Amino acid sequence: MQMTGKKSAISCSIWKDKYLPDSGVNGLRCLRLFIFSVVIVLPPASAQVYKWVDKNGKTHYGDKAPGKDTETLNLQKQPQLDEDHESRTVKQRRLLEIYSEERAENAQRKAEIANEKLKRKTECQKARKDQLDIAKATFLYKKSDDPNNPIIYSEAERAEASQRVADKIKKWCD
User: Which of 23, 41, 150, 158 qualifies as a cystine partner to 141, CB 3.0-4.6 A?
Assistant: First the structure.
């Protein structure tokens, strides 16, 4: 059996060699052409396809079994797409987009929560340090225009500063 493509020098004998060892690129083209031909000529998917090996060891395929030593091949039918396939695909893509957006929002929320926890921890540590400093200090003072002469807090101002630090501790520490 000779197969020749249009305006091509491809001429191959399907029966020449089982694996076309010496054929190179033309052999690959012939093999593709043969497979394409078999696929085109195959009966509908509901019909039986048989495979057999002849006396010379060549493998053949056909829709009728020539003898007892044939193998029935089960070809799977390509699934038919129904009318709702496109709408389901669009809905699925949209759902995946929504899930992706939700994951991004959740990640952003988690980052904000982590930042808030870090801020609370830092502010709590500062407030506790200030409370400890106030408790240890003999005098509390604030800076004045004259660096050598700071303004010393009165007892009322000290109590007020101590209360502000206690309020900070209530606000930032759990």
Answer: 150
